[in-house]
């Protein structure tokens, strides 16, 4: 296993981060859907599981998670996990921005500042 980060491996990591972040916001949209919320409020476990598990946005989000896991396996086959894993922190930045853009999530100073600290940490690790 090569410990060096190539452009292709870095590209796979970025695709993984993007897919994981998109999966989050798509799952949020699915879980916020009227049919899912109505089923959750009724509390019937099996019918709620069916409604959630068959919702197209939930299925799409889970499919994106699966695709990101396959891509992550390709990354792990090429570089050390201690080199690759810190880049997953970029998902905090991407997910925060997508949540704000697509769902109207609040961007407080604490959230933005904390996320920037994570991004700075990833940048430091990327240079090591």
Automatic annotation (TrEMBL):
Species whose genome carries this gene: Caldimonas caldifontis
Subcellular location, principal: membrane
Task: Alphabetically list the UniProt keywords.
Answer: Cell membrane, Membrane, Transmembrane, Transmembrane helix
Give TM segment ranges: 54-76, 83-102, 108-126
- How does the protein associate with the membrane? Multi-pass membrane protein
The domain of life for this entry's organism is Bacteria
Intracellular or extracellular location(s): Cell membrane
Q: Name one GO cellular component term.
A: plasma membrane
What's a single GO MF annotation on this record?
transmembrane transporter activity
Q: What is this protein called?
A: 4-amino-4-deoxy-L-arabinose transferase
């Amino acid at each position: 296993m090569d410990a060096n980060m190539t452009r292709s491996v870095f590209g796979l990591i970025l695709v993984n981060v993007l897919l994981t972040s998109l999966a989050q916001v798509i799952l949020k949209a699915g879980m916020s859907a009227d049919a899912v919320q109505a089923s959750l409020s009724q509390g019937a476990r099996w019918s709620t599981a069916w409604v959630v598990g068959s919702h197209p946005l939930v299925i799409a989000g889970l499919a994106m998670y699966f695709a990101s896991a396959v891509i992550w396996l390709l990354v792990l086959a090429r570089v050390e996990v201690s080199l690759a894993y810190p880049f997953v922190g970029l998902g905090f930045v991407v997910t925060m921005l997508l949540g704000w853009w697509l769902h109207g999530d609040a961007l407080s100073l604490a959230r933005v500042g904390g996320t920037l600290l994570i991004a700075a940490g990833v940048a430091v690790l990327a240079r090591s």
